[in-house]
Amino acid sequence: MASLTNKNDAGVKIAFKCEGCILDVDVAAVCARSNMIKAIKAMVDAALTDSSNARIIITDEAHTLLLMLEYIYLGHYDVRDTFELPTGLVHGKHHPAISHIRVHAFGKKYKVSGLATLALEKLRCPESYIAAEDFVGVLRVAYQYSAEETDDVRTDLLAVALARFDNVVASQVILTQLAEFEELRDFAAQLLPHISRFAAVRLSKSNDQNAKLVAHKNETIQLLETEVSTHKARADIHIGKFCAMREKYEGELIKSDGLEKLLTARSKQLEVAMARIADLESASSRDPAQGDASKTQILGLQNLLKYEQARAARTQTQLDQSDLKVQRLQSQVRGCEAKIRRLQSPVHGHEAKTERLQSQIRGCEAKNERLQSQIRGCEAKIERLQSQVRGYEGKLQRLKSEKRDLLGMIKIVKPRFLELNQQAREYRRERDEAREKLRRDAKEASEISRKASSAKSWYQMQDLRQFTPLSAPSSFFMPPSFAEQAYWDQRFRDNRNAFEWLLPPPDVAQLIGDIIRDASIDSPRILHIGAGTSNLSSHLKNLISDSKDVCNTDFSKEAVAVGKALEAEQVQAAGELPRRENVDECLTLWEQSNHLSADDTKQLLHSDGNNGRLFNTIVDKSTSDAISCGLDVEITLPYAINSNTTSQTNPDSSAPAQIAKVHPLHLLAVHLAALTEPSKGRWVVVSYNEDRFPFFSPFVATHAEGALRDDIIDAGFPDPKRLWTLVEKRQIKVPPPSSDGGIVTQARRVVHTPDVFHWVYVLARTDVQLTMRDSASG
């Protein structure tokens, strides 16, 4: 929707302001949908006699306003990837749940019929699924609006969180992120009774799984033991066979040895018989008479020899058969031995596996005991949380009772308030009339003075002064310009006495000393900004060994001169001068410096007294309060002071410079970070404001309220949230003033004086490094 034209010219016109562009809308269509805008238009129409030239301009978050207009005109709305505004700017896509929550809040805020219900339905649909890592970001958007505008959304988000808590990883992500934001502590308190219950359920499930695992392992062990018994029985059978075969083998060996011995004996007998035959043949040849007898003996011996040779051959055959049988038995014995080894190997493996499983079972049993102990702890914790919940319920009842009492008091006070409001309107009307009369009188007096100057005789009259009009100052009805240098220069010229803001110097010095000790700062170097004419510098000298380790700054030249002179008077009155050559050696450093200027910041760091040394303690007594009264400061991007981790550390000199405006406190935080030691320094702020810094929780929503836009950070301006962390924030009760303007002591306490509190902020410098360019600008 690049342009929306009003089709109804009767009565007051209505327009929406989006990012600097004013869109006239169809009055009839808007009033038909929004009861609140319709009521506002009716009130304005009734209050004005001629409302044809009047226009109601509604300013709010641009993206959500356009979605609401889309619903008013079309009856529905769609969340797109990008959204083009009438000015030409393009908004990136938010998480769909964030867009639906904002539309829901606008539907209730502007009382647009049906819009809140539609947004809630879209929030519950699957397309708006919220992952665990996105949950806290979506929740913070819901808590940016009032409880009346997002009460049902918060209930749905609580259900989403409870559904995520059945997942261990998701619950840890959500709890870790919730702990970082103080504004979500009410939501975290609602989750407390459920957290331990989910933990107990998870432990119970884990316990059941552990029991099933133990049973499975026991069954495995039983199977392994059965298999081992089977293998052992088979091994015993084979071992019996092996022993019988071994005995048979040994018998065959003995038999073979006997046959070899018998064969040897018979061989010897054959040799003897052959020798005898040879002797007989020889004898018969020598003695023919004995030849027949010898032949007979020879034939007998030859027959015996043939018989023995036959027996020897049979014995040799038996011996050969016995050798073959022994070889077969040896082969069978080796096979049995190998088979027994194969059977013994799985037995050993099963025994080792059984031992490992038994060890695992013992570990599971120990784990089961630990889980049982944790379950008992969770049950005890649930009991404690339930007790706390009962306590919170009692506290809630008391708060409701107090609320009813307060509502009763409001009903009593409301008539008086209305009466005072009516008186205030009368006073404002009388003030406007007095201003108008004063302007008319000043104009008439100026005309009279001009006419009187033309008459020479009137200049000779001595009593002319009583007719000369006195012009009223233009700031007569305006508050002091605490952020303007001219205001402070004039103030310190008119009043050169010592002046203190908020707390007396001894209390502030004691507070600074405690913080230095808690931060373990061994050698403090103190930067006292906005020192003015305060006596605090004299008390800060008690915290350091060298007076030059305290540097007092103020952007008013008059304040620096007066403050240094007052400190010199105190030094001379205290008698410190005789121990030093001159008064300056006893004084702390005094420098004129504008802490909203990057050039002054660099000049202060490299001044003669500081010589480039960084500070580790910054004292800020209501200086931030004064600076926050000023307008946004115009700077050039990329900025002269950069973070080493950003892409703008070494900006391209050829890139065109950008002009932007930032809240003064953002600029002060960056400049003080450039003067402070990273990872060590502390910035101590004493303020009257409970929410002084826009870059700490609770965060402001718009640039007009002090929010720092992402495009400025992307263009090269350091993010103060990355330079400082809020370590401590506490109240300090201020004693009520006495009737003479002093501080009331315990003995002189004024009855029924209302309590007044100031706030102390302790900010710690992070480890993010900063660099300053040679040509500082801004």
UniProtKB/TrEMBL annotation:
Membrane-crossing segments per the record: none
SUPFAM superfamilies attached to this UniProt entry: S-adenosyl-L-methionine-dependent methyltransferases
Name of the protein in its database record: BTB domain-containing protein
UniProt GO molecular function: methyltransferase activity
Highest taxon listed in the record's lineage: Eukaryota
Coiled-coil segments on the chain, per record: 312-451
InterPro entries recorded: Lys/N-term_MeTrsfase_sf (IPR051419), SAM-dependent_MTases_sf (IPR029063), SKP1/BTB/POZ_sf (IPR011333)
Methyltransferase keyword on record: yes
One Gene Ontology biological process: methylation
Keywords from the named record: Coiled coil, Methyltransferase, Transferase
Methyltransferase listed as a keyword: yes
Family: Belongs to the methyltransferase superfamily.
